[in-house]
Design a protein that fits this description.
By secondary structure, this protein is α+β, with helices and mostly antiparallel strands. The chain folds into two domains: about 45 residues, no CATH class; about 30 residues, no CATH class. The N and C termini lie far apart (about 50 Å). It is about 55% helix and about 25% strand. A hairpin with a 5-residue loop joins strand 2 and strand 3. Strands 1-2-3 form a three-stranded antiparallel beta sheet, with no helix packed on it. The chain has one helix and three strands.
């Protein structure tokens, strides 16, 4: 029997995702991640702004910074 449409779609999408990851790996390691790290560090020095609140429904909550987009003020009510 032929593969299902869902399985074929999944294989096509996964192959694309894997190729994009392979092609972007060096750039991400040498350019993107270091630049993003510096951006978050600079934002911490200025002070994050409280953006969107997130609650995962399992007792973990946090805020996203309205400027740099990183998460902060992570709280675990089960701790």
């Amino acid at each position: 029997m032929d593969k299902s449409i869902w399985t074929r779609r999944h294989e096509i999408d996964k192959a694309r995702h894997d190729k994009m990851k392979e092609l972007m790996d060096e750039y991400d390691r040498t350019v993107y991640y270091p630049a993003r790290k510096r951006l978050v560090e600079d934002c911490e020095k200025e002070g994050h702004t409280q953006g969107k609140f997130h609650d995962n429904g399992l007792g973990w909550t946090w805020w996203w910074c309205g400027k740099c987009g990183t998460s902060f003020n992570k709280l675990n009510s089960h701790a």
